Amino acid sequence: MSLHNNELVSIVDDDPLVRAATSSLVRSFGWDARVFASAAEFLASDALERTRCLVCDVQMPDTDGIALLGTLGRQGIRIPTIFITAFATARIRERVPAGAALCLIEKPVDAAELEAWIRRALDHR
Fold it and tell me: Is 90 exposed, middle or buried (0-12, 13-18, 19+ CB in 10 A)?
């Protein structure tokens, strides 16, 4: 049972090791976590209604994190989002629309930073 009942953090990343590590961290903070290997998998899931925070890779095959956020917005779904990336270049930072995400965290993710941003996301909602 999670310490923060009904606080689901969904993690979308194409890297299975990142999914496993990030979900383990999120659970250690006391929140529920669900992992998805792609934007399509997340969109097709039953987690949309319960997700209170989305931790999403910016660069993924097929639909990237920025496109996923756009799709959610067009569907009227607003989920506080934390982008993560292994490639925090100026070009990537420019691609993230202003105000689209709470932040952009560089991989490897710092546990304290991730926890602080998730708390902000949950308070933001």
Answer: exposed
